[in-house]
Amino acid sequence: MNAFFYVDKPTGQTSFQVLRDMRRILWVKKIGHTGTLDPLATWGLLVATWNYTKLISYVEKDSKSYRAEIMLNGTSPSYDSDSEITYLPESQLEDLKNNLTLETIQEVIDTYFTGEITQIPPKYSALKIDGKRALDRTLAWEEVIMKERKAIILSSKIISFEYPKLVAEFTVSAGTYIRSIAFDLGEKLWAGWYLCNLRRTWVGKLTEDMLQNLDDISAENTLWVEQIFGDKIFHFDDEVVLKRLSDGQRVWWEYDFPENENIFLSDGDMIRYVVEYKDSVLHPRKKIV
After folding, report:
1. Is the dihedral of CA 153, 154, 160, 161 positive or negative?
2. Helix crossing, 102-112 with 178-188: angle to 10°?
3. Residue 280 Cα to chain centre, angstroms
4. Is 38 a catalytic residue?
């Protein structure tokens, strides 16, 4: 079964545990997901089965939006409430309560957390270092050095603030760590911080109304590929051309396709090829089915 599912991941479960449950429900072996979600995080895990796992890399690069609840009264090794929290001294808590304002937080976000930024991913993350997750190395008391990387904050919005809780939404490029944003924000505000809740609100073209609970997952209840790739999908039934693409050959012809970007050729039933069209030439990029 070649299919996509958009799973509302429960809090407390890892992305791997969601895949394990879906293997059992669907009786499939080949399964994968885009964008690992922390156990604390909920919502929005896109899962692909069988040959459609080959399409995951084309979705992973999509921007994502999150709603984060950030506590500014302590710190934790994992940057969230999944590990032991060390609270700030009472005197510092009282000072922050009396003097930290919404205007100050907004100014810091506007100054340091807009557009392209650099951040250091958390040591408690699924990011792999020499083939092993940083989280596993950290828990094994290995020395873990996380390298700085670039990220893009496309937009941000403060939803509410009543000390010690800040609720904000961030729309970010793929690979951006919200926990690292929260950590750096706390540093700029001279406050402790940790995430107490994180919800991914959308990925690319996928929105809340497309979400599926694990209990509702079935072979008959799948996403349409048009919901994921939109106008990048084109119905194409020329078997001669499809055969040439299957053999890795380029095809010269005038098509009404967008140029210089990945497009997805469907036979009306499923996506069969990813191609790029430029200068009146179809260039095969990946065979899907």
Report:
1. positive
2. 120
3. 34
4. yes
Cβ burial of 16 (10 Å; 0-12, 13-18, 19+) is exposed
The parent domain of residue 274 ranges over 228-287
Structure tokens at 159: 């939803």
- Considering the domain architecture, whether residues 107 and 32 belong to the same structural domain is answered as no
Cβ-Cβ contacts under 8 Å for 198 (sequence gap 6 or more): 38, 40, 41, 42, 66, 67, 68, 69, 80, 178, 179
Cα distance from N-terminal residue to C-terminal residue, the chain: 11
pLDDT in tens, 124-177: 888 888 899 888 899 899 999 999 999 999 999 999 999 999 999 999 998 899
Q: Under 8 Å CB-to-CB from 74, ≥6 apart: which residues?
A: 85, 86, 87, 88, 192, 193, 194
Same domain, 53 and 177: no
The string of pLDDT tens digits covering residues 212-234 is 888 889 988 899 999 999 889 99
Q: What is the pTM of this model?
A: 0.82
- What's the total number of domains in the chain? 3
Contact 272, 288 (CB under 8 A): yes
Q: Which of 8, 21, 38, 256 is catalytic?
A: 38
Distance from C-alpha of 23 to C-alpha of 29, rounded to nearest angstrom? 6
- Please check the confidence at residue 209 and state whether its pLDDT lies above 80: yes
Residues 184 and 70 in one domain: yes
Helix (H, G, I), strand (E, B) or coil at 198: strand
Same-domain status, 25 and 48:
yes
